[in-house]
Specification:
single chain, 377 residues, Rossmann fold, eight-stranded mixed sheet, 11 helices, disordered N terminus
């Protein structure tokens, strides 16, 4: 999962600069910008990327472009996350860093997004959290809204690391994206991230109109831990009898607590997410291992009835693949309208790498198409 907080602009100006605060409460990327991350673009030239070495033993069928990113990530020589404290882990290089460096080394142009960004702090129970609002510059009177939750196992990463995903969703869907910097563990244990996620959704419903958003068209989306938060937010909205989201997009979501599934066995040593890292995330976020059975973590055991149309994206080289696919079946059994696709040959965190990984571009546009359909666009 992604960790280090570096905006595209800062990285290009000062390659190797120190990481920002992991909560990303306020960064330069919150200011008006059109090209704040270098991992997704329609303007990227077609560049043949060839890995320097053989495919890793844990992924013999990895796509070449994906392998190049993984090689670059390994080249930084960071200590494995399970050997670090959360504070230390947040300073490690990220897949985003690897993509930016691959683009620079191969003269792949930076992205151009027709987007304005601004930051907003909102109160939540026990403190405040930061939101980054991405607004298309297409001049509409009102836009659909996507509340987006980043990944990082509830412990690491921030808005900057997942800036590409938010940018591409806003730009290509022509919707406002509100990216949520929920509080992280172990400083803030379960269920803080879940509570923050729902608080942000409620805030968006109440304030959408003031941001040129349509309060009747609000979807939720997220990656990994953020995919879990997106689905949980919809469940809590249903149970709280407030407006449920227009749609859900969950990208390789954390959806179960069984680490003996087929994909956990197959991908136990995969990168950038492996089984030891997932165990580390659980240890840091949960108050006890018993909480792994809580339906907010173990979504495949949750009551999924009455949820809106849901899109689930999975990938082959990922410990979470099996639980994502099981979630799809559980959603269908609960009567939810579900669309899902799996991408072979790519790893966890591939979404948002569309400038260099073709399968990522496909997945991004699939998510965009699903959201536009839900919004009636």
């Amino acid at each position: 999962m992604k960790i280090k907080s570096i905006t595209y602009v800062a990285l290009f100006c000062m390659m190797g600069a120190a990481a920002c605060s992991s909560n990303a409460s306020k960064t330069a990327a919150d200011s008006t910008a059109t090209d704040s991350n270098a991992t997704t673009t329609d303007t990227a030239k077609s560049v043949a990327l060839t890995p320097k070495g053989p495919a890793p033993t844990w992924a013999p069928d990895i796509k070449p472009e994906m392998a190049v990113v993984i090689e670059k990530l390994a080249s930084y020589g960071d200590k494995p996350i399970p050997q670090l404290t959360a504070v230390e882990a947040r300073k490690n290089h990220t897949p985003t860093d690897a993509v930016i460096d691959v683009m620079k080394e191969n003269n792949i142009p930076k992205p151009v997004f027709n987007i304005d960004t601004m930051g907003k702090d909102i109160p939540v129970d026990g403190g405040n959290i930061h939101l980054r609002v991405y607004t298309p510059k297409t001049g509409k009177a009102a836009y659909p809204v996507i509340v987006y939750y980043h990944g990082g196992g509830f412990v690491i990463a921030n808005l900057d690391v997942y800036d590409a995903s938010a940018n591409v969703l806003a730009d290509k869907t022509d919707a406002i994206v509100v990216s949520v910097a929920y509080r992280l563990a172990p400083e803030h244990k379960f269920p803080t991230a879940h509570n923050d996620a729902f608080a942000a959704y409620k805030w968006v419903l109440a304030n959408a109109a003031s941001m040129k958003g349509d309060p009747k068209k609000v979807a939720v989306a997220g990656e990994s831990a953020g995919g879990n938060l997106a689905i949980n937010t919809a469940i809590k909205a249903r149970d709280s009898k407030i407006m449920v989201p227009t749609a859900i997009v969950a990208v390789y979501p954390v959806a179960g607590s069984d680490m003996s599934t087929a994909s956990y066995v197959k991908n136990a040593a995969a990168k950038p997410l492996d089984k030891p890292m997932m165990m580390w995330f659980v240890k840091n976020y949960l108050n006890s291992m018993a909480e792994g059975k809580d339906p907010r973590i173990n979504l495949i055991a949750a009551n999924l009835k009455g949820l809106p149309a849901t899109t689930v994206i999975t990938d082959e080289i990922d410990p979470l693949q099996s639980e994502g696919m099981t979630l799809v079946e559980k959603l269908k059994a609960a009567g939810v309208t579900v669309d899902s696709k799996n991408w072979d040959g790519v790893t966890h965190e591939f979404f948002g790498m569309g400038a260099v990984v073709p399968q990522a571009k496909e997945a991004e546009m699939y998510a965009v198409d699903q959201l536009k359909k839900a919004f009636g666009m």
